[in-house]
Amino acid sequence: MKHPMRNPWIYTLFIAPTLILYGLFFLWPMVSSSYYAFTDWNGLENYRFVGWSNFARAFGDPDFRRAIVNNLIFIGFSVFVQIPLIVLFALLIASVKRFRGFYKTTVFVPSIVSTSVIGILWGFIYEPEVGPLNRLLALFGAGPIYWLAEPKWALPAVLITNAWQWMGFYIVLVLAAILAIPREIHEAAIVDGASGWQRALNITVPLILPVISVVVMLSIAGGMRVVDIVLVMTKGGPVGATEVMASYMVNEAMGIDPNYGFGTAIALIIFTFALVLTSLYQMTFGRRMQGGEF
Amino acid sequence: MPLKRAVPHAVLLAYVAAVLFPFVFVVFSSLKGSNVEIATHPFGLPKTWHFENYAEAWVKAKIGVYFFNSVYLSFTSALASALLAAATAFAIVRMRFPRAGKWIHQTVLLGMFIPGNVLFIAQYLLVMKLGVLNTHWALFLPYTAGALPLGVLLLSAFMKSLPGELEEAAIMDGLSSAGLFVKIVLPLTLPALVTVFIVNFLGAWNEYLLANFFISRDALRTLPTGMVGFRDAFQTNYALICTGIVFSVAPVLVLYAFLQEKIIEGLTVGSVKG
Hints:
By secondary structure, chain A is mainly α. Chain A has 13 helices and no strands.
């Protein structure tokens, strides 16, 4: 008798649905995107191959170049502004005993709320006439600022909303790494007379570099993928001030005059950017930060 | 010394206040009578409590419809995806087809490196070709498929750690591999299954991009897109919009209150392994 764990029929039955769904919704879209990206298909039957011209058109469009820069600003903001704050807050939470659970639970809350609801909520906070932010400014006599309607304010406003949404998630991630450090290490440092801040900077931070490196990777990926918050809050406006690559893609492909060929070319550009940036990071800082193996 | 101890708490409490303020503000505003009251007393309690805003939003803004759509789409796709991932994980780590198993594992995990929005247009064209655009299938299928890579990853790691003796004993007792899966492995995997289910559920509950473009019939909308439509329609009635926000955030917060450890674990483990 054959061993029951070698039954090929059961095996097929167990993996087939997953492979079919995965093939349909992951592999096939990758293949078909790579095909349509070189056509001018707009949903009608007739289309022709246009070579690299979709890509040339994208990079030739100042709006798209603006979108690329905005994606880089998203990444830069999370790496250079959010991450130091994330580490600081995680260190502070780890340093207290009382309320530690409360802090952890509370700061995590925004990461379970849908981005579209957060966009609506913060749109209200930024509202020029009745929004609480401008009401607060009015107490100091500062005049109404049209946060989401003025090009110079719109991007910072969206960046802050995005940071508010995701910082808690990363704080919890870093906090777990800090709490996993063996206590003996700290006790030895205390015996040596190291102060709290010295220990944090010279012992804790070096030990949690691997998780910080993960957070950097996730921030790069997140900065490349950002789109919901932009679509809900500003739709990429005013005059392209908050446009990111993905919102540009959606607006081009799903507008009144859909252009799927051009849109899929943008999708491939986003994919390539994400791949290149993460592998560049891995090859330079990432490997050094993960250290350990060598 | 007491001062030194108070400093971290002061900083953390300020941050917690910044995190919670928008929620509190929305709850207060949802119970206020008019925009004038919100504007003149933005930080205070309502003068009179307008609970009728909630009934009005539920009916007039069809929050009830969106809410029901979200609940049942998130529930069914999260469950389907968790079970399919469990079956696949069982086949590739427990059944004796090591080469095929390794190959399938690698292929499915590739999916975790593709940013979701890259596939967006191609998936749109796919659901159009399948003829399910503007039906709930257009969301159910990509939600279920989209959650598979992480599910397979987490569940196969978990199932690998189950002791092999159990399996031998069950087979000696005459169980088939399918029977073993249903009667022994699934119950043992329950903790990991719950984690995967929660992550899938939240992902579907919060999803916006596909929901916005794959569904255009109002009666089929889910909460995230319904809420945006609601905001655009009632642009000036802030109390009512805040009521809608409360409706869509409250269930998730209640879930979080009961399952915070599971939720935090599921979401963070998933991101690190990915």
